[in-house]
Amino acid sequence: MSILVTGGAGYIGSHTCVELLNAGHEIVVVDNFSNSKPESLKRITELTKKEYKFYEVDLLDKKALETVFCENQIEAVIHFAGLKAVGESVEIPLHYYYNNITGTLILCEVMKKYDVKKMVFSSSATVYGFPKHVPITEDFPLAATNPYGRTKLMIEEILKDLHSSDNNWGIALLRYFNPIGAHESGRIGEDPNGIPNNLMPYINQVAIGKLDKLNVFGSDYDTHDGTGVRDYIHVVDLAKGHLKALEKIISTTGIDAFNLGTGVGYSVLDVIKNFEHVTSQRIAYSFTHRRSGDIDKCYADTTKAMKELGWKATKNLEDMCRDSWRWQRSNPKGYEEETFK
Ligand code: NAD
Ligand code: WQD
Questions:
Q1: Measuring CA to CA, which residue among 339, 19, 35 is closest to residue 183?
Q2: What are phi and psi of 270, to 5 degrees?
Q3: Which of 67, 123, 135, 172 is surrounded by the most beta carbons within 10 Å?
Q4: What domains can you pick out in the chain, each with its CATH number?
Q5: Would the CB of 228 count as within 6 Å of ligand 2?
Q6: Are 255 and 163 in contact (CB under 8 A)?
Q7: Catalytic: 148?
């Protein structure tokens, strides 16, 4: 029996594939490379010394997806495939709704047809909208502030309806906080297209000299130093959370949401200082106006994941900065070109 990983060539998917293979799972990966490169798949094999099946398939292509289920004995699906850039989702909302929601609907239809009723879904802390306080527990009111966030919220609702219609489904909604870092080998990591939107890849590109300086969005938030506070989580810890969620859904039915974060909030300035400290690179920055839609503080209460999944993040901000930089330094152009060491 295999675990199907949709979006397995991407940032979080590739790290999860490594953990799955290392734990002895057989996996089948599908990806359409809309936001990833085939090189990441080669490196999964390089790191694990294990082979696995890959299909270049778009989830919107139902026939091609059916072939994957027909040719493999799928036990459960870890569903990462989706578009994730908040700003882009505002520019091209229909594309986001179509890709993320229709892609998930087609996946669920095919799963149902092949009697595969176990899914771990990549949700996001974005479903908490503007939380009224922190730390955030899973029972907080849900809201979304942009089309990307609405796709996550709608998919959560769709999956809840699916479970209500047939309670043989076992579904985990994993609400990630801010994933950063990279595999400690430096061989896989985050490889954004163009100018990064997110903080850590931006800092990395300033450190490598690709960008001149970081714009810190806002200095007057209600936080310890005025800059935005987030719950950064190491991508390898996050990947391990998927294995714990998988264990749970394979042995039970039901639908449940879990926060995956560390439970600790760090400001933008904390991240810069930490990065400078562990990498000895100076990060030039200046303050600019707040970014529209940003909130002051966002961090998780992780009690539920600890109690019900037996999962807890183990890596700290220093590990995250060190591993992000190792990936960036040894792959200055991401997966695009031959790396130098
Ligand atoms: P990513 O873009 O690196 O990976 C997503 C992968 O899905 C890519 O390889 C892309 O090519 C593929 N894909 C997209 N649409 C597809 C389709 N229709 N058919 C087949 N493949 C498709 O993103 P990531 O950071 O690894 O995120 C993985 C998931 O986690 C996404 O659903 C994202 O929304 C969610 N998430 C990410 C973050 C984050 O900050 N990175 C936070 C919360 C939630
Ligand atoms: C972190 C902090 C910024 C860039 C996003 C999505 C969310 C989820 C995770 C998918 C904030 C500040 C950033 C920069 C800055 N993704 N910042 N200068 O916004 O918390 O969350 O990624 O689900 O949905 O919205 O992450 O990394 O963009 O920002 O000062 O150039 O860094 O204001 O305080 P965010 P981020």
A1: 19
A2: -60, -45
A3: 172
A4: 2-183+232-261 (3.40.50.720)
A5: yes
A6: yes
A7: yes
